[in-house]
Structure formats: structure tokens, C-alpha cells
Amino acid sequence: MGLAAALGATGALCAQTVPDQPNTASALDIPENLQIFGKVDPNVRKPTAIVNDTVITGTDVDQRAALLIAANNLKLSAEDRDRLRLQVLRNLIDETLQIQEAKTAQVTITQSEIDQSYARIARGFGRTPAQMSTYLREAGSSDRSLRRQIEGELAWQRFLQRRVEPLVNVGEEEVKGILDRLQASKGTEEYHLKEIYLSATPDRAEQVYANARRMIEQIQKGEAPFEYLARQYSESSTRAVGGDLDWVRLNTLPESLSAAAQQMQVGQIAGPVETPGGMSILYLVDKRQVLTSDSRDARLQLKQLTIRFPAGTTQAQATTRAAAFAKATQAINGCGEVNRVAGTIDAEVVDSDAVVVRDLPPALQEILLKLQIGQATPPFGSPEQGVRSLVLCGREDPQNGGLPNPEQVQAQMEQARVNLRAQQMLRDLRRDAIVEYR
After folding, report:
1. Which of 61, 108, 126, 422 would you label with 152, given CA atoms 20 to 30 Å apart?
2. Domain residue extents for the chain
3. InterPro entries from the entry (predicted)?
């Protein structure tokens, strides 16, 4: 489960009605006039479990949920918090199964590896490992919870590298076929989409529609990032990557999703959209033309200046310091002055030598494409994560769009097959596990 907060999104295209969906439960041979024997009370099953003799406690669930809430700056209702805890329990069960399976293959993750990953995550939050541990405790989580998550991700990744990747093969003819299709589709549009898919039988369509609308509202209000909701609630295999469908052409999508995507602007939300067996929420990250050069494919050399606000900083103090930061960064004349200016305003400096324009938020893309070398962007950021400015130090414009090399295509195809096999293996592990709920 990712820790970074996701891009915000604006706008919505809302479906007016939800037609009946095919009944996918018919294969189960469920009687039409069924009778329930016994009572079902969701409050009886507490969010703790024993997974093949490994105990998941209520504290484990609470701390992992707190980690997610803090990392994504979520604002959840009591009802949404209950849903989150149930989803976290399911995630912890999967994580436990992955760690157990990795151990059967003699996969060992050392404490040093966990420490290195923990320190890297802490740096992403602008903290030292010790400060990160304090931050987690104050948020109601713990470094133990984050380290457990790190162990699970590393163990499963290494298990796949040992047991799955060596068995995945992509032939030269398959690669050639992909390249031929790319060449044939030169100039056509591709869309970078993210999706939250929710299954819905006819009897649940109204409830699922309401849930989808609530998710859209959370995204638009900044209460929850799209990726977070995709990881928690999407029933598609892309949930593991925050719902990311990557670059797709519209003729590969169901007709309803294709029609919705064509009406969207970059950064916009669409949904709920009726899809086979359910409904989807779409987020358009970007769009481009196949094998056609685009200014947003330029690679930039950047210097980022950041100031952070200590705990207890008042709004007036933050405003004053941000104003001084803006004045100083706008007076920068060339990248050679960045470190000197940073020293005068107590700002951190980070160098990035190969940032692709389209990988940045849309608002920053437009600003950076208009900057001259040596100029700085206006300040941006938040009180929680600090205020930043980017200084443009160099730019490599894209050449005419060309085919990717065969090695790149082969690597992408192999990774897709590894991911598919990983989902199948996790499904089998769930099926064979002994899980006792308490």
C-alpha cells in the first residue's frame, strides 16, 4: 500500500441512471426464495484475526489505519473510518500471507534493508528516522507498523523475483507485434487513466452508485486521494497500483469508459460510469498522441527549494515567512545563485536532473514550459508539507516521436505478466489459508 498523497482532481461527469447488470451469482445455484438461518451482526466480528497461526491484533489494525490517515492527510467520517479498518484488516491478511509464502521460499529481509527503506520514506516526509518515529506515534501509529509494511512489500517483491520472473518469457514475435501495432497507430490518441472499479449486481446497484458518488465527493473536497480510495475499495487488479491503467487507447476500453474518457479534461473525474458487471470512477491523468513529439516529454534539470513550518507555527508567521520565500526565489538570477539564496532563507535544496514535464502536476507543467533557464516558479505547497519553488536549470526538448526499443517493450510485457501471476498467486493463498476471526 503506497504512502504518498495523490494528486487532487476537479470536475465530474455523473451518470444519471444505473441500468440493471447481469447476475454473475447465477453460477452459484442460489435459491430464489432463500431463508437465512441465524442472525448476522457485523458488530460481533471484531477486526482481529489469526492467519495460519499468525495473530493480527486490533492494535495492528488501528495503527495501520492511522498510518494511512496521516500519510494521505485524510478527513474521514466515522462510517468511512469503519470501512477503512475493515479494508486494512483485509490488507493485513494479504500482507501476512505474502510474508508467510516468501518465508517458505527462504526469502529473508534483513533489518538493515528495512532500516534503509524506513530512512528513505522518512526523507520523503522531510524527517529523520527518529523524527518519523515520533510523527507516527503522534498520529496514533508506530514505526513497527510501517516497518512491517516495508517487510511485506520487500519480501513479496523478492519472492516474485525468484519464483515468478524467471518463468515469464516474452518472445521476439510478440515484441515485434507490439511495435508493428504502435507504428500503425502513430498519431492516434492515448489516455493515461486511473480507475476505481466497483462490482454491482442489480440488487446492489443503488448502494454501489451511492458509494461511488461519496468517493467522488471525497476526492473533490480533498478529503481522500484517488489512489488511496483505489487501493482500499477498487475490485480491479489495478488496486495494487492505485488504480493506474497506464497509457491506453480508447478502442481497448469498454464502450462506456471510452465515451466518458473522450469528454474528460486532464485532471478531471468521471463517474460513476456503467461498466460490465458494475461501475467505474475514472481519473484522466494525461493524454498524448502515439509516437508524436510533445513539449511535455521534455526532460528538465531542476533545483527545488523548500522551507518547512515547525509545529506550532501560527498562520501569521507562516504567511510572513512564505512571503519572504516568494520574494527571495523570484529574485534568483540563474541556478548558480540557488544555494546562496537558500542559505539566506534557511531553505533546503534538492537537485533533480531528469524530470519529465508530463510527470508533474498539470498546473506546474504549464508554468515550467513558459520559464526561461534560470527562472523560478511561484511558490507552491501546503502548511503540512512546506512551501516549495522550482528553478529551471536546463531543458532537453523531445526529438520526433519514435518507437520504443524492443528491450523496453519486452520489459513492460514481462512486468505485466508478473503482476498478473502475482494476483493469481495471492488469490490462491487466500483460498488455501486458515483465517480465524475473533
Report:
1. 126
2. 1-13+45-181+406-412, 188-289, 296-396
3. OMP_Chaperone_SurA (IPR050280), PPIase_dom_sf (IPR046357), PPIase_PpiC (IPR000297), SurA_N (IPR015391), Trigger_fact/SurA_dom_sf (IPR027304)
